[in-house]
Amino acid sequence: MSFIRNAWYVAAWASEVEGSKMLPRTILGEQIILMRDGEGLAAAVSGVCPHRFASLSMGRLENGVVHCAYHGLGFDHTGACVHNPFGAPPKTMRLKAYPVVERYSALWIWMGEADQADPALIPDFAFNDPAHHWVGEGYLLAKANYELEVENILDLSHIQFLHASTLGSSEVSNGRYEWKQEGEQIWSNRDVYGEIMTPQLATAMGVPVGQPVDRWIYVRWDAPANMAIFAGAVPAGQPQDRQRETPTTHFFTPETEGTTHYFYAISFPRAMGPAGEAMAQEQVRFLSIPFESEDLPMLEQQQRNLQGKSLRDSKLGWLPGDAAGARARNLLYARMDAEAAR
Amino acid sequence: MSFIRNAWYVAAWASEVEGSKMLPRTILGEQIILMRDGEGLAAAVSGVCPHRFASLSMGRLENGVVHCAYHGLGFDHTGACVHNPFGAPPKTMRLKAYPVVERYSALWIWMGEADQADPALIPDFAFNDPAHHWVGEGYLLAKANYELEVENILDLSHIQFLHASTLGSSEVSNGRYEWKQEGEQIWSNRDVYGEIMTPQLATAMGVPVGQPVDRWIYVRWDAPANMAIFAGAVPAGQPQDRQRETPTTHFFTPETEGTTHYFYAISFPRAMGPAGEAMAQEQVRFLSIPFESEDLPMLEQQQRNLQGKSLRDSKLGWLPGDAAGARARNLLYARMDAEAAR
Amino acid sequence: MSFIRNAWYVAAWASEVEGSKMLPRTILGEQIILMRDGEGLAAAVSGVCPHRFASLSMGRLENGVVHCAYHGLGFDHTGACVHNPFGAPPKTMRLKAYPVVERYSALWIWMGEADQADPALIPDFAFNDPAHHWVGEGYLLAKANYELEVENILDLSHIQFLHASTLGSSEVSNGRYEWKQEGEQIWSNRDVYGEIMTPQLATAMGVPVGQPVDRWIYVRWDAPANMAIFAGAVPAGQPQDRQRETPTTHFFTPETEGTTHYFYAISFPRAMGPAGEAMAQEQVRFLSIPFESEDLPMLEQQQRNLQGKSLRDSKLGWLPGDAAGARARNLLYARMDAEAAR
């Protein structure tokens, strides 16, 4: 498995799991049921009944208890069997329970050893805090390994080609690029000078349409694949104004070796009022177009071309823009090996 | 392979194989052609031409001879090559012939050593004898291993949950349950007291709609997976009246490791006249609803959750209601091991 | 792999690769881009970018350079990286280039060692030379191994059965058959006497409809699977008139172990003028019917019945008509073994 387990993954947008609704989702190849307990606290349990392997997604959630559709066993949010229509609930039949934290508009799940599930390890996505930001949320399922997604975002040189008419411009390759590691965090920063952005992108970034701008696009990666892009633009030649920077979120969570949940978002301050909310919704719709119609076909074709091999076991070419992605993958591989060695 | 070979399997309803028609069907992973010889006796031969692996299902049956569509070789119901357009029929090219017996409205096939194919080993389904009963016949193909089907029928506690609005009621779990072994036969018997059945079920069972009844549901299993359910109901508190018992038939025949032919039927005495015939047709249509829309999705999801493993190699949970199914499977496993050891 | 590599395969009809268009096609399991250089010379390079495994089919061909859609690398028809938007083209990233020859209306590709790619090894299909013949071209993709195709064409006894109402007649099995080997070439020749051909076939062959004819059908095979059929007919009893012979072409090129590109054609002399051109188009349309609706389902079913095994590893039956096919396959196997031994 090309996964690390002792890490926080985003299992869902918090808004996907409402009061009395359960959400079935496969993460790292495991069926999981996301739900909320009586107090609205998010929880996650294994999604397969230990009795006869029925998927609990076929059952129902009632008063915080998941009832199996086959023989009626009921399990609470801790995984304990609390209901057996034919006798005492068997203590030996438990669902695995996973640590879950709700933060930054998302439900974070810990797939590894529960005693290491420290919420302080969740990377900072404060700009997704719904108390202070309007968060436009998107989701898609990619038939590609998450490492391909990490490389896609850490090397945004591709926006000039793959996103020529949406997010890119002909000036990207003339810009400046640097990457750096800060602790376990990787940054991949790109400055583009004097580019004319597409009208849609200029409007989104609050710069005049059709005029040259200087754009900065700074990407941050935290293991396993929780990424942020901080991007902004100013009229060409003006100094950077970080106040005009818009953060986007890119959470990648493996569904299986060959498929990945992609949670993406764009955030605007609540201080902007209703205009900010409208902007968040409009901009996330705009982003969905290149993500689904440009990135997705490319990533899925890469995955097919891997022919079942992992990226780690494949002989890749090398361009300077690959450095950040390669470093991130090496950090992942070191942790995979450490987990496998234990 | 999780199959026993020295056993009688139902290959088809007898009515599926008419005079001049051949029926191709895969059983235990083998392509088979079912046909009748000149006197109408049912026969079964391998469905793949030994010459160049053409499926004989693409050819035609003419005067009891199956002609391959590719190069015209003809084989009779014994599997012998009896026609070669280009010379003498080659004696070395034969189809495998399988012992077949027509009994109880079905064609029974023996997949193992022919000299052990004793028709006396066919279990008793006299209530399917078309001379004395109207038999409403149904068929479906399940993408699930036959052992899951055996467990499904031997543990009918699930009718309270999976069939809540069709075959079950809330009182099933309050009933009485016992199982027993009689020789190689397993019985799994359930009595339910004071239940209010769905109107459709009450009508089918000939008891007043909306009034509490006592129902008995007795299940019989014979290896590998030929099962009968004897069920009846009387107004609550009255003694059982076995005259009012209706038998249903559940023949499961593996198509492959992961798919199963399901032949089901319900029988009424010919003595009932035309009303009995109408009842048989109407009731089998009613049964098809829970079988196809409730059991099938559950069984097929279980199969997917096995992820390619056999039930035998999986760690299952245990409820008292599983005893009969577990015993049946153990009998199967012992015979599998014995066959493998030879 | 059941392929020989040091051989000429037909990659495409020449007409499929026009001036500024590139054609992606998988051959022997490898993605390939077919294109033409600045002077219109056909070329073939690997279809997967060595940088991040993007399929170059998603990119674009511009001025003889294939540009990857992902990060903009450009490769010329020799496979050299000639464009890198972010710096000097990396010499270490090359596409594999394959020798290609345009001849007989087709593009021939050499999948093995380039220094052995002698154009003199291309078998003679002069009747497909567009300078002197009208060539009606057809193509289909069969989900069957190419060896099944070779056997299909080398044993045309099947036209009596599989093509009973199109290409065959009841007299085929009464004809004369012989096969011979001439060097590395196999011939499989069939003469049929006094047959009444279907009206469409009689018209195509220029003999009276409804009257008995003598037909000759001579098949030629060159490794790996480049085949020609020379067929003609005269009123029964008259001597063969080779002037009235029409050649058809059958090029089989493995796409994968289980799928095959089938390029077929029928040729008429340019001397016939426009009538010849019309004839070529009409006849190739006629041929497409039995090839697609009669041969294809049979071949694909054979492939499924092989259940992942190769024909070489399967125990086949034997009829005298199989001799030519068996000889051809043995020649292939000997070359496979020789290639594997090196």
Automatic annotation (TrEMBL), chains A, B, C:
Pfam (any one): VanA_C
Transmembrane segments: none
Domain Rieske residues, every copy: 8-109
Protein known as: Aromatic ring-hydroxylating dioxygenase subunit alpha
Alphabetic keyword roster: 2Fe-2S, Dioxygenase, Iron, Iron-sulfur, Metal-binding, Oxidoreductase
Gene Ontology MF terms in the entry: 2 iron, 2 sulfur cluster binding; dioxygenase activity; metal ion binding
